[in-house]
Design brief:
With 373 residues, the chain is of the alpha+beta class. The protein has 13 helices and six strands. It starts with a strand and ends with a helix.
Length: 373
């Protein structure tokens, strides 16, 4: 609040809803940091082909179940001088005569140079153009360079986790968009009209919420034909998750519409001759859009966990599609976990980090959008 020099009148600066929300949100340091992390995760999903050293299907047979290699920067050269530059040590594979199991021993004489922004396998960036440039790759095609270790088929786990980020995170985002549309549409109709329509939609909502989630997922996923191509299965799983997850948002929207439909600005819009669709979309929904954003942010982790659970149980996405759930499915065997714990650790940590970041971000947005806090 300040006075103008010419008129002496007091001028009051008024911040809009979004600016007030931003001021509150930036005080929530954990949510702010989580928001940055979520953006980085989606950037990884967007740039997966560039960031991954190998394609998700590339394999080196000799590197089956190979332990993770540590990226190093300083070594002693053949002439005894210190050499600075990224590299990894190779492994020598031996057969244990007692257990007849493959064992890997670090071979310090086998130095594998690593190059940033080097040339590796050819891929098509975003399906638009071909390139061989990768963020990190073994120099001159020498390998393997498996920073997260190798899986049971000799594929680079780091590349598969990066490619899996695209599928798992996009399923959460696309699924929530569909759920958002259904939740606002059905919840809005229920709360705005009431009566028999409200009764019908609420009974449908209660019916869907009363069915145990995992058996419902299993039944719907089992109906997907095994002959379907991976892309069609991907969209089918996304649609299944969306058709189940819309009920919570619909309840929230219904309650908001019940409270808002008798407000003065809605009555004024109705008297001004606005149609019902315009009243709903241009007057009622924008008045609580911040709450919808917070709800959507909190719904994405549920979608990600649902896809991970379905794929882990073997009824969701299937190879050759790569997602975090598909990667975790390979770690179901207790023998694999005991011998190769990295098969469970890296995909599991990816899920935990993404879900926690989205939850913290959603909590921060919800607190920032709450005018009574």
């Amino acid at each position: 609040m300040e006075k103008t020099e010419n008129t002496g009148e007091t001028r009051v600066d008024v911040a809009d809803q979004w600016k007030l929300m931003w001021w509150r949100f930036r005080k929530h340091k954990l949510a702010l940091g989580s928001g940055v992390l979520v953006i980085l995760i989606y950037l990884v999903a967007l740039m997966a082909d560039f960031l991954a050293p190998y394609a998700s299907t590339s394999y080196i047979a000799e590197s089956k179940n190979m332990p993770p290699q540590r990226l190093r920067f300083l070594r002693t050269g053949d002439d005894g001088k210190k050499v600075f530059g990224p590299f990894v040590y190779g492994y020598a594979m031996t057969i244990n005569p007692a257990s007849l199991r493959r064992e890997f021993v670090q071979d310090t004489n086998r130095v594998i140079p690593v190059k940033f922004f080097g040339k590796g396998e050819t891929y098509r960036m975003w399906g638009l153009f071909k390139t061989r440039r990768h963020f990190i790759t073994p120099a001159d095609g020498i390998g393997p360079m498996y920073l997260f270790g190798g899986d049971s088929m000799g594929r680079d786990l780091m590349s598969r986790v990066i490619h899996g980020t695209r599928v798992s995170m996009s399923i959460g985002l696309i699924g929530v968009i569909i759920s958002l549309f259904l939740g606002i549409l059905l919840g809005g109709i229920s709360g705005y009209y009431g009566g028999a329509i409200d009764n019908l939609i609420q009974r449908l909502t209660e019916f869907l919420r009363s069915i145990p989630t995992i058996p419902l997922w299993m039944g719907l996923a089992a109906a997907i034909p095994l002959s379907w191509p991976p892309l069609r299965v991907y969209f089918a799983i996304t649609l299944i998750l969306s058709l189940i997850q819309w009920t919570g948002l619909a309840r929230v929207v219904r309650g908001k519409f019940f409270a808002l439909k008798t407000e003065d600005f809605v009555t004024a819009a109705r008297l001004d001759g606005c149609g019902e669709i315009r009243i709903i979309m241009h007057h009622m929904v924008p008045s609580f859009i911040s709450h919808i954003i917070a709800s959507v942010t909190l719904s994405i982790p549920g979608m990600i966990l649902s896809e991970t659970s379905l794929s882990f149980l073997g009824i969701g996405l299937r190879p050759p599609v790569v997602s975090w759930g598909v990667l975790l499915q390979e770690a179901q065997n207790i023998r694999s976990i005991a011998a190769c714990p990295w098969l469970l650790f890296f995909p599991g940590v990816s899920v935990v980090i993404a879900v926690l970041a989205l939850n913290f971000l959603g909590d921060g947005l919800r607190d920032a959008a709450d005018p009574y806090d």
